[in-house]
Amino acid sequence: MLFCGFNKAMACFSITDDLNLPNPVLNASFNLLPDVNPFTDCWSATIRLRSSKNSWRLVASRTGPNPTNVSGNLSENIMASDIDLDFSVKPFGTALSQGAILVSPFSTKTNLSSITSGTLIVSGVNKSGSSCSSSNANYYKLTKNICLFRDFVFNIGEYNGEVTYLLVAP
Length: 170
Known about the structure:
mainly beta
């Protein structure tokens, strides 16, 4: 997932299958700085998906969170399983409501460790419209909320990682 920092407001992205031929990729890096006080940090992001193909899919791969400048017991580092994900997908414009379907386990709250290399997130069974132009008002919007529940057991320091989204429209 390459968008601005993981702990900042996320902007909308359009992944289209004509601007980034043959398969568009979106990378997003994240950076976490846990505190000693227990609290929850959540961030949200939106990706606009457009395809002129009836069959398409959105896959993701993840690296991290990798600890940097962290000292202490390795078992107390932040792990991918400590970061919750909550995805939703909605159609806009004339995109059909069941044209994009979240794939389990992403149809319910899960965690970042569910994303490994080439993990299927959304299955597209209908095109969003005849044009994939980023100015086209027909698209599927994938929204995700990402939450880290901080606790005193986490080692303080910096954690970095990346999630890469790939829109495949054969």
